[in-house]
Amino acid sequence: MHRIVNVVGVGGSSRPGSTAEQALRIVLDAAQRRGASVQLIAGPALAMPLYDPHGTTAPQARRLLSAIAGADALVLASPAYHGGISGLVKNALDHVEELREDTRPYFSERAVGCVAVAHGWQGAVSTLAALRDVTHALRGWPTPLGAAINTSTACFSPAGDCKDTHVQEQLEEIASQVVEFATIRALATSTT
């Protein structure tokens, strides 16, 4: 029995249509073409109060947590802010602590594609490494390929299309790996 896997993309910046969001949309579009159901949580949907382990969970955070809890796989995308994950994305990831008691805590049993964008290689690479580290800390399985995108050359058109063939291929491969792993995992759990 084959079921459609659910891939949730989380990231971007407070600016709608940011380069991180454009890259995330390309991965999600490619995942959808591979048969996945996709959901995007980006930009203003990530604007939530700072995570407080003793506070109440804001409505935006509850929506994020519900989407992640129901996901078969995830894709994280962040711009590089001073060599690391943006505060907006990091705060969203901090809220995932609320899934510690879930049947699949945090990102357990999920492939996680990671995408980092920066105006230069140093920020892109260090942010990608940070995303992968956070994924490990949240018990997720980073896909073998992650994308560090240097936006110092115009990579994306104003419409959000990728103008760099190599970057497009990387984003498509991340989608392929996420969907393939989620499908294999779904089949394995349905037969046990």
Report on the structure:
The chain is an alpha/beta fold. Helices cover 41% and strands 19% of the residues. It contains five helices and seven strands, in the order βαβαββαβαββα. It has helices at 19-33, 59-69, 87-95, 121-137, 165-190; strands at residues 6-11, 37-42, 73-81, 84-85, 111-118, 141-142, 147-150. Strands 1, 2, 3, 4, 5, 6 and 7 form a seven-stranded mixed sheet that branches. Strand 1 (6-11), helix 1 and strand 2 form a beta-alpha-beta unit. Helix 1 (19-33) crosses helix 5. The longest helix is centred in the last third of the chain and has 26 residues, at 165-190.
Structural class: alpha/beta
What portion of residues belong to β-strands?
15-25%
Largest sheet: 7 strands, mixed
Run of helices and strands: EHEHEEHEHEEH
Task: Sum up the structure in keywords.
alpha/beta, seven-stranded mixed β-sheet, 5 helices
How are the SSEs ordered, and which strands pair?
Layout: E1 6-11, H1 19-33, E2 37-42, H2 59-69, E3 73-81, E4 84-85, H3 87-95, E5 111-118, H4 121-137, E6 141-142, E7 147-150, H5 165-190
Parallel strand pairs: 1-2, 1-3, 3-5, 5-6, 5-7
Antiparallel strand pairs: 3-4
Helix pairs in contact: 1-5
A few lines on this structure:
With 192 residues, the protein is of the alpha/beta class.
